[in-house]
Amino acid sequence: MADLNKLYEAILTGDQATAVAITREALEEKVDPQVLINEAMIPAMNEAGRRFECEEYFVPELLIAARAMKSALELIRPLLSQTGAKPVGRVIIGTVKGDLHDIGKNLVASMLEGGGFEVIDLGADVPAEKFVQAVQEKQPDLVCMSALLTVTMPAMKTTIEALKAAGLRDRVKVMVGGAPVTEDYARQIGADGYAENASRAVAAARQLIAA
Ligand code: B1M
User: Fold this and answer.
1) How far apart are CA 209 and CA 89, in angstroms?
2) In the chain, which residues have pLDDT < 50?
3) Contact partners, residue 108, CB within 8 Å, separation at least 6
4) CA dihedral 111, 116, 118, 121 (to 10 degrees)
5) Is residue 193 within 6 Å of ligand 1 at its C-beta?
6) Cβ of 109 less than 6 Å from ligand 1
7) Does the Cβ of 76 fall within 6 Å of ligand 1?
8) Which distant-in-sequence residues (6+ apart) come within 8 Å of 100 by Cβ?
9) How do beta strands 117-121 and 142-146 pair?
10) Which of 2, 10, 61, 149 has most Cβ atoms within 10 angstroms of its Cβ?
11) Which residues is 95 bridged to in the sheet?
C-alpha cells in the first residue's frame, strides 16, 4: 500500500522520482487525490518553508522540493479537472507580478476546472496590463489572483486599479488568495472575494458568480 509518509519525505527532500512513483501507486490504489495533497504534499511544502525560514534549507532545496511536488501534481491534475458539465463560468487566473510561486495557483486552477469552470491560466509573474488585456479579450466572469510573497501582495491592488482605469472593474468579479493574503486584506484592496485554500476557492467562485 502506498506510504504517505514516504511521499511527504520524497517531496521534502526533492526526490522527484520517488514522489511520482508513490503518487502513481496511490492513485492506482484509488487513494483520494485530496488526501495525497492535504496530508502529504502541502505539509511537505510547509515544512520546506519552515526549514528555509530557519536557514536549514536554501533556495535550491526549495526548488527541488517544488519540482517534486509539481511532478506529482501533474499526475493528479487530470483527476481534479475531470468534468463533463457545461462550464459554470469563465475564470482568468494568475500569480501577480514579481511572484514566481505557482504551485498553489495551479492547484486552485485545477480545482476550479474540476468545479466546472473554464479556466484561462496566465501563469506566474503576471503584470496588471496582462490581466487587463486578458479581461478585454476573454471576457471572463471572474479574475483570480494569487500571491505568496508579502512584497507582491500590493500588485493585487495595482491590478484592481488597472481594471478600474480600463473601465472593466464592473464587468468582472475579483477573487484573491495565497498564504499571506487575508479576508481583511482582500476587502481593503477592493477585491470581491477571498479564499484560503483551493477547495474553498471553488465554493467562493460559485458564490461570486451567482451573486
Ligand atoms: Co518561496 N517563499 N521564495 N519559493 N516558498 C515562501 C512563500 C516563504 C513563505 C518561505 C519562508 O520564508 N517560510 C517566503 C515568503 C515570505 C514572505 O513574503 N512573507 C518565500 C520567499 C522569501 C522566497 C524568495 C524571496 C526566496 C529567495 O529568493 N531568497 C523567492 C521569491 C521568488 C519570487 O517569487 N520572485 C522564493 C522562491 C521560491 C521557489 C522558486 C524556490 C519555490 C516556488 C516554486 C514554484 O512555485 N514553482 C518556493 C517555494 C516552493 C516556497 C514554499 C516553501 C512553498 C510554497 C508552496 O508551493 N506551497 C513557501 C513556504 C510555504 O508556503 N510554507 C515559500 C504549497 C502550495 C499548495 O500552497 O501556494 O500557499 P500555497 O497555495 C495554497 C493557498 O495559499 C491557497 O490555495 C492553495 C492550495 O490550498 N491559494 C489560493 C493560493 N493562491 C490562491 C488564490 C485564490 C485562493 C486561494 O484565489 C484567487
Assistant:
1) 7
2) none
3) 93, 144, 146, 177, 195, 198, 201
4) 0
5) no
6) no
7) no
8) 124, 125
9) unpaired
10) 10
11) 146
Length of the chain: 211
What is the predicted pLDDT for the residue at 211? 82
**pLDDT value, residue 81:** 77
Q: Give residue 88's pLDDT.
A: 87
> Which residue's CA is the nearest one to ligand 1's atom 17?
149
* Residue 134 cell numbers, joined: 486578458
Residue carrying C-alpha cell 483520494? 32
* pTM of the model as a whole: 0.93
Nearest CA to ligand 1 atom 70: 179
Q: How much is the CA Rg of the chain, to the nearest whole Å?
A: 17
**In sequence order, which residues have a C-beta less than 8 Å from that of residue 8 and are 6 or more positions away?**
40, 41, 43, 44, 47
Report the 10 Å Cβ neighbour count for 84.
Answer: 5
pLDDT for the residue 79:
87
Residue in the block written with cell 512513483: 21
Query: What secondary structure, in 3-state letters, does 125-147 show?
Result: CECHHHHHHHHHHHCCCEEEEEC
The predicted pLDDT at position 84 comes to: 62
Give the pLDDT of residue 56. Answer: 96
